[in-house]
Design a protein that fits this description.
Order of helices and strands: HHH
Shape: elongated
Distance between the termini: 37 Å
Strand content: under 5%
Largest sheet: none
């Protein structure tokens, strides 16, 4: 597993804690953050989108039960 030792890693950790994400979705955000052209607003947008899609999936499974 690649680790990022910088001041931005603290900010990335706070971003990951702020949203209720699955481990798989957290890994997607970390991979996106490692790209040279990623921005914080783009990472937050991706996190919100993944969280929303996860909540929709949970609602569908509850309704089908």
């Amino acid at each position: 597993m690649n680790t990022c030792n910088s001041a931005n890693s603290i900010k990335l950790g706070k971003l990951l804690k702020r949203f209720k994400l699955t481990p798989k979705n957290k890994q997607k955000i970390i991979q996106e953050a490692q790209k040279d052209y990623s921005t914080w607003s783009g990472l937050e947008r991706l996190a919100r989108n993944l969280e929303f899609n996860n909540s929709l999936a949970k609602q569908k499974t509850i309704e089908n039960s």
